[in-house]
Amino acid sequence: MNQVQLRLNLNFKPNRAFTLIELLVAIGLIALLVGILAPALGRARAAARNTMEVAAGQQLIVAYTLYADDHKSALLVGYATDAMVSLNPPPGGQTLRVMDEAGEAISGVPARRYPWRLAPYFDYAFEGLYKDPSILRRYRERSDFQYVVSLSPSYGLNSMFLGGDADRFGFNSAALAAWGSFYATRIDQPARTDRQIVFATARGVDPDGGDLVPGYFRIDPPFRTARSWSATYDPADLPGATGHIDFRMGEGAGRASARRGGGKAGVVHLDGHASMQGFDSLDDMTMWAPRATGRAWVLGGP
Fold it and tell me: Do 123 and 99 form a contact (C-beta atoms < 8 A)?
């Protein structure tokens, strides 16, 4: 090495390292950017999930309408009696033949709920009924798959006022004598199809452990013979406080904002369109019952 090269090497100084203050400033800027971007990314993810869930609801109403087309405009029975789905039905009554994807007959509670009776119209693709695929995977591992898969679809059916519900005064001669035909049995009976609720996002209880899970097969109205919903929505309440409707879609579904009316449910209407509706909007019986004359209408009312 010559003297010039040695002199250059001795004079070389490495790049200066960051000072502590500069590092703290850089960390602060990164934290600021994360704080700005994280809510936007969260909203984008929520919007994507909501879009997928609304699309699933629109596919469900297509299947619901196809069922009516195949049954001379008769609506799908909301929640059947045990006799309707019996493998040995009594003579003279309405009979519903319910089959699984292998063509095997289903009876009992799984057949009384809507999913298995509507399943042929979405090719038994239960993935479309469950927004949380992990729940469906877990259910498929159970020996009682027929039962649990019918329990927690993402969308619950307005079974009390569409098709009739055996646990909600449906097919009851005394109730029909007292209140008349309070539920629709044909797809052409509801006059306000753009308002008429068919399905809405729901939540219920996990059959494995009692925790709350997305999805339930039935949604209940705010009024029956009296008010059945809580006065306000709080996401900490049990699902039955709002008829099993899940208002946690969209923005503002946290507890504080929910008490101010925030949070949305995905709703599918009889005319085929889907919408996002809050607690106050769905606390209106004219969206539920074809015969309702006001927001607080009850069975037996004018």
Answer: no
Helices (H), the chain: 3-11, 20-70, 108-112, 114-118, 133-140, 145-149, 173-179, 255-259, 279-282
**Can you give the residue range of the structural domain that contains 192?**
53-287
Using alpha carbons only, give the angle 193, 198, 200 rounded to the nearest 5 degrees: 130
CA neighbor of 286 nearest in space, from 201, 216, 190:
190
Question: Which of 22, 292, 24 is closest to 161 using CA atoms?
Answer: 292
Secondary structure of 70-91 as H, E, C letters: HCCCECCCCECCCCCCCCCCCC
pLDDT in tens, 130-163: 988 888 999 999 999 999 999 999 999 999 999 9
In a domain, 197, yes or no: yes
Structure confidence at residue 40 (pLDDT): 60
CA torsion angle for 53, 59, 65, 68 (degrees, to 10)? Answer: -100
State residue 15's pLDDT score. Answer: 58
Give the amino acid at 174. Answer: A
pLDDT at 252: 42
pLDDT for 131 equals 82
Residue segments in the chain with a per-residue pLDDT below the cut of 50: 6, 8, 251-261
Question: Distance (Å, rounded) from C-alpha 90 to C-alpha 212?
Answer: 38
Residue 130 lies in a domain: yes
The whole-model pTM stands at: 0.83
- 91 belongs to a structural domain: yes
Q: Is 116 inside any structural domain?
A: yes
Domain count, the chain: 1
